[in-house]
Amino acid sequence: MSESIETRLAALTTEEKADLVAGEAIWTTKSFPVAGIPAIGVTDGPNGARGGGLLGTGTATACIPAGAVLGATWDPELVERLGGLLGDEARAKGCRVLLAPTINLHRNPLGGRNFECYSEDPILSGLVAASFIRGVQSRGVATTPKHFAANDSEFERNTIDSQVDERTLRELYLVPFEYAVAEGGTWGVMSAYNRLNGIFCSENEWLLTQVLRDEWGFDGFVVSDWFAARSTAGSARAGLSLEMPGPGQWYNRGPIGEALAAGEMDEGHLDRIAGDVLRMLERTGALDGDEDCQPGQERELDRPEDRALVRQAAAAGTVLVANNGVLPLNPAMAGSLAVIGPNARKAQIMGGGSATVQGYRNVSLMEALGDEYGHLDVRYAQGCDIERSLVALSAPMLKGKLRLEYFNGHDWAGPVVHTKESASAEMVFFGEPGPGVNPEEFSVRASGVLVAEATGEHTLGLVQLGRCRILLDGETVLDATEGDYDQGDDFFGMGSELISAEVQLTAGRETPIVIEYSNRDSFMLCGVRVGLKSQVDRDLIAEAEAAAAAADVAVVVVGTNADWETEGRDRDSFDLPGDQPELIRRVAAANPNTVVVVNTGGACNLDWADQVAGVLVAGFGGQEMGHAVADVLFGQADPGGRMAMTVPARYEHNPAYLNYPGENGVVRYGEGLYIGHRWFDARAIEPAVPFGHGLSYATFEWSAPRVTGGGDAEMADPVIVEVDVVNNSDRAGSDVVQVYVEPPPSLLHRPVRELKGFAKVHLAPGERTTARIVLTRRAFAYYDPGDQTPQGLDSMSPIPAGESHKRTEPGWYVDPGSYTIWTARSSANLVHPAKVQLDELTI
Ligand code: BGC
């Protein structure tokens, strides 16, 4: 512990230290003015810095591409710059801690938060995470890589026991966190909700102390996931530094005082965790008395250079999976374009849950085409619906934004105390809804204009946590301000079921809408979502077919929304929701130049891919997504992405299939080391799209790899792999040299080959460079937990001394032999082998 931290600790009483380790409120820590310790703000999260809002409410902010897109960039340098942007945004939102990055692994395609996580692969995740962290922390903002550990699905997420053998943990699920510590130098870590091998992560001493601190040398703070703390002494002893949110339930002077008095923990434990919190405050500059980053002081940045960076990143993470030559489209073409699909007009730029932010912009492909390709003849057809439940009203049926007026009291009466604008008819409140608004008793009137697209019957619906009524043209058409209502699964299961009314609307006519909401009958969390759905009978697929048949090229944007891919719930299906697969097939039959853009967060079924001319996997691309997709479609940007996850040909082929989602409170990681490409290679199963695959518009030639180093017995020097890459096309582009290591037969079973490093290169036409990949000893090692069978257990056939071929000492081992180093374009497209001979090593 540094001297300054020791001095600060010594100045605090036991009670103050016990208070320091619990938050003050949902997004703030406590202040101790006499000791010169200010409160600081913390904010989600991985694709933006939201500030004090909840679920996409709050001050507008930059929405960068979701984690799975960042993984697909294979570009740590670019991700570091995005990290810097989020660091700036966090400070502009008065926060010194960014609750990010999310670095669990894509174990199963249905994982509800896969969109937030980088990849199926621990090395790719680890390298991207480390650069994200360096970027954020370069702005004096701490990161909390999450969720430590084995929180890879949402099923029973608060209690599930992830049962994972130690070798699998060490070689897969812990690796991104190890990189976050060793390469990223993270100042924080967030412990997960789940249990790991029977013990809740927030009180798991093996995880939080033995591995994280003692083995990896982490000296930062561990914050609980929100409400994930489970105990007082157990957590403090295990190394949980900060309970969030506040006020603390397990930490603060009451429970900690009792635990100390009962001798369940001692002052040393308290000093250790309070010291962790102080160190975070010191590192983020909070103890220097700088005034420019105070909780509640929120500013918008929205800098032009940030928009450009976010746009570049979205294109860099877009994967061109297949192309029969239809792409890139000629930007000067005078022809016509059919643009089809719900997500073409309403881009899904991020997933649902705590990662949700209110982006500065939300650019769809249609909007981008209107902005920059106005000369094209573009026809839009929706094609089908993809709602899972009530979707909040927003553009284009909502014209412009809603204007929100806040009143103190439940009755929309008295002076307007606060105003705000919102692009969607979803309001969520937790804590103070705005300056001057009484959180105990308030009401909001939201006014705007509706424009229906069809004439006839529409369903106007709401789900509420509180009380709401809706007026159209000044008439109350839906009133849920009185009477009982049943609960549904919205608002974390506390909201009402859908309450709806049928209304008649006329296509193109502007209809004033007023949504009046009050927080009466709610507690703490409150809000309302209002949606509108046309019931007018239309054959949407036939309309899309007709539009496609009449156009030169059809672009179908398929995808999900934040209701399908969200925190708190795994996805229901591997297939695209609604009639989208059928829509693709029928559009492709109507137009041979059909390109499909996949706007999902995680992997989905692509069994229609061989029927279309081109497939782009764009993911949840952030606020500039529409521009980035247009850039790639028209060749203004190279599709820089490579798949960060394997797409199985059938859902049943996924490695976790037999061990997902779990039962009786347990999810057994029975597939062990074999997730992602490790599984498909071991089982010789051909995936729909292999890990690492992605095409460029440019073409690149690679030299055979030059492999040096690693020769001496201790492998003191790393193995260096160098490949000369030349862009032999007439277009600028990027390429990713991937390096997979194939071990010789080893003492323990090992995957056939594993990604161990990569380098992304950007080359102008004709340009040449050398890609350099460094492989340390760990790239060749595996973790052997050792045979822990008690000596002499089998008295019938004792192994004569000296003849056991098993190790008993756990650790990282390199077996002697000839290792093949493959340079590759994907896990299934191996380019050049090289051999390296290694001696036996213990790390
Ligand atoms: C999520 C975390 C998030 C926290 C605060 C939790 O529900 O799991 O990722 O940082 O909420 O919003």
Describe the structure.
By secondary structure, this protein is α/β, with parallel strands linked by helices. It is globular, with a radius of gyration of 28 Å. The mean pLDDT is 95. α15 (540-549) packs parallel to α16. The protein is built from 18 helices and 36 strands. Among the domains are: 3-288, Glycoside hydrolase, family 3, N-terminal domain (TIM Barrel, Alpha-Beta Barrel); 397-452 and 455-537, Jelly Rolls, CATH 2.60.120; 700-842, Immunoglobulin-like, CATH 2.60.40. The longest helix is centred in the first third of the chain and has 17 residues, at 76-92. The chain has a six-stranded mixed beta sheet with strand order 9-24-23-22-10-11. It binds beta-D-glucopyranose. Residues 44-45, 99, 146, 225-226, 354, 567 line the site of beta-D-glucopyranose.
For the structure shown, list the relevant keywords.
single chain; 843 residues; alpha/beta; TIM Barrel; Jelly Rolls; Immunoglobulin-like; 6-stranded antiparallel beta sheet; 18 helices; 36 strands; 21% helix; globular; binds beta-D-glucopyranose
Helix content: 10-25%
Low-pLDDT regions = none
Shape: globular
Number of strands: 36
Q: How are strands sequenced across the largest beta sheet?
A: 9-24-23-22-10-11
Which sheet architecture does the biggest sheet show?
6 strands, mixed
Count of helical regions: 18
Please give the radius of gyration in angstroms.
28 Å
Derived structural class: alpha/beta
Name of the CATH class of the domain at 3-288: Alpha Beta
- What share of the residues does DSSP label as strand, in percent? 15-25%
Give the rounded overall mean pLDDT: 95
Name the CATH superfamily assignment of the domain at 3-288: Glycoside hydrolase, family 3, N-terminal domain
CATH topology name of the domain at 3-288, in short, is: TIM Barrel
> What distance lies between the first and last C-alpha atoms, to the nearest angstrom?
28 Å
